[in-house]
Structure formats: C-alpha cells, structure tokens
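Entry 12.
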Amino acid sequence: MSGTPLATTTGDIAGQREQKFAGDNCWYPWLEYEHGKEDINGHIIESIHTRCSDFVIYFCKQDGLSDLYYECTDGLLKTTATPNAHLARINRLVSEDEKKRRETLECVADAFEMWLCGQTKESEAILTDIIAQLEVWRETRGRLSYQSAALFAAVATWALYLCNSNGMWLAQLDPWLLAAALGATGGFFSVCLNLASIKVNVNQSSSQLYLAGATRAAVALIAAVACLLAVRGKIILGLAATAETAGGSEAGIPAAVLFFLFLAGFSETFIPNVLRDSEKNAATGGSGK
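Predicted 3D structure (tokens):
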C-alpha cells in the first residue's frame, strides 16, 4: 500500500463533497477533512494518508512530532477495539525522532487501512510485529543507557584518582580512590558480561535507566571501598594484606589485594557475603561471653 490518499482524482473528491454521505448513508464531519483544516478535536491535519467512503486515516503534527488518527463509520468503529489497543501500545513505544516516528506510523496507518478494509488477521499480524520490534529497540536502547552510566562512573573515578595522584591534593585519599576506581571498573565489566540478561522496562525513560546504571556503578564502588576496609581490618585476606607477602604495592595497597578490589565491584555477592559472615561471627562472639 502507498502512503497517498486512496481518493486522488478530482471527480472522487468532488463527488464526496457533493453527497457528504459515508458508505452507510450517514453524514460524518470527517467527510470534509482536508489538509490544513482542523479535525473534530481541533488538531490541524498535516496530511491525509487514506480516504474512502467508510473511513479516513490522517496525520497531525504537534510540537514537531507526527501522530496518527483515524475516523470511520459507526459500524466500523465497533470492530476497532483490537487495533486501538495496539495503537495505544505503539504510541508509548514509538521513537521521538520525527523521521523514525513517521516511518513507523506510516506502517501502522497501512495496517489500520487493512483492518478497516476487512483484512483483520493480516493487519493484526503487522501491528503485533511492529510492537515486538519497538519493544526490542526500547530494550536495546535502555540497556545501552544502563551500560553507558556504568562506563561513565568508571572513567570519572579513574580520572579523579589520576588527578589526585598527580596533583597530590590529598595523598591519604589515593588508596581509597584507587579502590573505588577498580570497583567501578569491575562493576562496568559485570554489566558488559550480563548486558543481555539485564531486565529493562520498555516504559521507562532513558534517564531512569541511566540512573539505574549509575546506581549499579555506585554499589560496585562502595563494595570495593568496603573490601579495602575489610582487608585493612584483617577481616579477610589477612596474608595478602601485607606488602611482604604481596610482592609490591600501588598507592599503599598490596598488589595481591588489587584483584580482590576489582572482584568486589564485579561480584554483587562477594562483599554482601563478607558482611553477613562478619555479622554472624560478631553475634556468635557476643553470645559466647
């Protein structure tokens, strides 16, 4: 199907204007819809996609974005519950980029034309496929927003660590900033490996998903700092916590501990398990006194 109106000849349009009756011999306001005029709801008609004696499908544009509308006879209107539900779903998922949005809605308009012409099965299959493709696109975009937030957090933390190391603003912060940077990097690596399994709500905005990714990065960062605290308190990795057995250090952190700082950010269970074990040990020690 083309995206041009079905009634294109001067004779057809003139005939519709003369009789002003639809296929059910009733008059409807949409019989007089034209480009540039207002529809019954006050929307300016940007273009008419399809017109016949039983229905009209047209586009209106508000704030630079196209929206799809249709009107039809009362008899046809009773059959449109299913495509209306699909259209509502599509309107929530469709892109806000005008070019992509218009391309999608043109396909939706063709499917609506098929439905109103009686090809309901074929039309529903097209609408269902459009929804599935939009959901995949939304999920992919959401995961990329999530991933980019985790990457930004890692890069920003490394930049802060390097600036502090070179500028020596606060030398005592170096080990903690290094731990945070390693944890944020481990968190980003974890996000990359598990990107396909990250659950994304297609109705969420990109900013919400970006915030969710930033939260995951913050958890990784805090976990690495907590790991360094646990190491220095000799709660875990007692042997690895000394430079002599570790074989060198970076920012005052034994080399053997650096991996575990990365692991703390990568694993969502490593530090929580350490904290739970410490809590149990503290409770047991307290009850034994």
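Annotation: Residues 1-17, 243-247 have pLDDT under 50 and may be disordered. The chain has ten helices and five strands.
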